[in-house]
Write a structure and sequence with these properties.
The chain has 149 residues and is mostly beta strands. Helices cover 5% and strands 14% of the residues. The strands form two sheets. A four-stranded antiparallel sheet has the order 2-5-3-4, with no helix packed on it. A two-stranded parallel sheet has the order 1-6. The radius of gyration is 20 Å and the shape is extended. 10% of the residues are buried.
């Protein structure tokens, strides 16, 4: 396939988002674009299934053995060399934990992973208490791309 400068890319009708990754070799001069122009939200965002948020304003990490140092959504990962890393290291491996509370123990869900092997990263506290005092908790997609969604 060949595309001229300024011509928009249209995938062939027999290729869908479920086919995997398309890769093209570009033989031209790259033109820098702003982050806003380059960012394409996940296809689930407009459907309301997923929500993208900016990278937290501060980086906060904690071991699975310590109580949570802040309230919010935490994303857990283990060393990629761990035999269960492919099962555990998923973007959905998130938990809403209040400050001072323990992080979830994967052994309670049948995963033989010690809490000491888990590194938790804080994804921010987007779930502020409602006027009633109740909290509306939403698990979010953690992406380093800047987004206003």
């Amino acid at each position: 396939m060949y595309y001229a400068l300024g011509e928009s890319f249209t995938a062939p009708e027999d290729i869908t988002k479920d086919d995997g990754v398309l890769r093209f070799h570009y033989l031209g001069t790259p033109i820098p674009k702003s982050l806003a122009e380059r960012h394409v939200p996940d296809w689930r965002v407009p459907q309301g299934v997923l929500r993208e948020v900016p990278v937290p304003s501060r980086e906060l990490r904690s071991s699975g053995l310590l109580p949570a140092p802040a309230t919010g959504i935490w994303h857990g990962t283990i060393d990629p060399a761990h035999p269960l890393s492919k099962v555990f290291n998923l973007w959905t491996r998130q938990a809403y934990v209040e400050e001072g509370q323990s992080f979830p123990d994967p052994r309670e869900r049948g995963l033989e992973i010690s809490p000491k092997d888990i590194q938790w990263q804080w994804l921010d506290q987007a779930n502020l208490p409602l006027p009633s005092g109740r909290k509306d908790i939403i698990i979010r997609n953690f992406s380093p791309a800047v987004s206003t969604n």
